[in-house]
Amino acid sequence: MTQEPTQRYARVLSIAGSDSGGGAGIQADLKTFAALGCYGMTAITALTAQNTLGVSGIHGVPPDFLRAQIQAVVEDIGVDAVKLGMLHAPEVVEVVAWAIDRYQLKNVVLDPVMVATSGDRLIAAETVQVLVRELFPRAVVVTPNLDEAALLIGRAIEGVDALDGAADELLALGAKAVLLKGGHLPGNEVVDVLLQAGGERKRLASGRIESRNLHGTGCTLSSAIAAHLALGATLPEAVERARAYILGAMAAGADVKIGAGHGPLNHGFAPVPTHRLPLKAG
């Protein structure tokens, strides 16, 4: 007689766009979840025709079908954490907000994907306000880079000294916590700021890794945070562990050539076995 299972995997759902080149989006998220020992699932918001040189086309998934994907996954398998990526239209944002409320989804990490590494705009201007209104309050953390943060607060962020003030402004938009990524600033050191509601602020600094292969860094970092939250880490712990993972993935992929443009990270540089949790944990 077969014994009833008593364990399950740590489950992470990515609601994001597909990158046909494999370096960012859904593809990067699934690689990250697997590398960190989580069971990855997807609800695809859009298809992109994309490679290391840029984005040549975007085909949005109908909102009703996005809703169907989320329902299929959540109602059968369940979710411990959610990573939100490319949400290109207001009606797509509204479906995601509905799903978070309907299923009481927790550990929601919002990467407000607006501009690709290549500089391509990935979100309609009218979507930004809806994204802020509907999803900032529903996410446990928002993870903009400097370009995305500048679009959100309406001004450029110039220099490391400006990071704290910009993080304050982003938090004031309704977020529970903000991880403002300073990687686009010049200098030999990369400084990120994690600011949580209530005022807890943490600066995270690391040496810059020189590499052309930085496509998908934002997707990878946010999905790594979601993975560690699914495994039970606190938000500051999840951010620190995710940063350590992405620095390793960047360093391990720096001397590899994939495509003629910005190549991917080495997501599988140090994979771990899929973690098991007690089945009764939900």
From TrEMBL:
- Ranges for domain Pyridoxamine kinase/Phosphomethylpyrimidine kinase come to 19-266
Keyword Signal appears in the UniProt entry: no
Q: Can you cite an annotated GO cellular component?
A: cytosol
UniProt cross-references to InterPro entries, sorted A to Z: HMP/HMP-P_kinase_dom (IPR004399), PM/HMP-P_kinase-1 (IPR013749), Ribokinase-like (IPR029056)
GO BP terms in the entry:
thiamine biosynthetic process; thiamine diphosphate biosynthetic process
Q: Which UniProt keywords apply?
A: ATP-binding, Kinase, Nucleotide-binding, Transferase
Q: Which Pfam families match?
A: Phos_pyr_kin
Q: Which CDD domains match?
A: HMPP_kinase (cd01169)
**E.C. no:** 2.7.1.49
Q: Which domain of life is it from?
A: Bacteria
Molecular-function annotations in GO: ATP binding; hydroxymethylpyrimidine kinase activity; phosphomethylpyrimidine kinase activity
Enzyme class per UniProt: transferase
Name of this protein:
hydroxymethylpyrimidine kinase
Question: In which pathway is this protein known to take part?
Answer: Cofactor biosynthesis; thiamine diphosphate biosynthesis
NCBIfam families membership: HMP-P_kinase
